[in-house]
Write a structure and sequence with these properties.
A four-stranded parallel sheet has the order 1-2-3-4, sandwiched between helices. With 119 residues, it is α/β, with parallel strands linked by helices. The protein is built from five helices and four strands. Helix 2 crosses helix 3. The chain has a single domain, classed as 3-Layer(aba) Sandwich (Rossmann fold). It is 45% helix and 13% strand. 39% of the residues are buried. The radius of gyration is 12 Å and the shape is globular.
Length: 119
């Protein structure tokens, strides 16, 4: 499952990652852009994905990644899904800070990390 976080309508990178994941054999639920923490949580409940990917291009929307991870914890869902984050302003340090399981510096690396997370 993949989506661009709340307040951010940029989805070209997210869509590229989604296409590459599909090409690598993943079934992808693309939630679109501007996805709130509550919507991510609801979708995780509905679809039970192995991986939740969150994207952001705007630095002002990055905190929504951490909020979503906390919302997953609050709902008792965090242990059931691996979380990946990405986007131009995202770094490995940010991924570590928000408690993500994975980070891809580009679309190809995101796919490789996703493969590693489900092995």
């Amino acid at each position: 499952m993949i989506g661009t976080v709340e307040g951010d309508l940029h989805d070209i990178g997210k869509n590229l990652v989604a296409m590459l994941l599909q090409g690598a054999g993943f079934t992808v639920v693309n939630l679109g852009a501007g996805v709130t923490s509550a919507q991510f949580v609801s979708a995780v409940k509905e679809h039970s994905p192995a991986i939740l990917g969150m994207s952001a291009l705007l630095t002002t929307t990055l905190p929504h990644m951490g909020e979503t991870i906390q919302a997953l914890k609050d709902e008792g869902l965090r242990e059931s899904v691996k979380v990946m984050v990405g986007g131009a302003p995202v770094t490995q340090a940010w991924a570590d800070e928000v408690g993500a399981d994975g980070y891809g510096a580009n679309a190809g690396m995101a796919v490789e990390r996703a493969k590693a997370l489900v092995r």
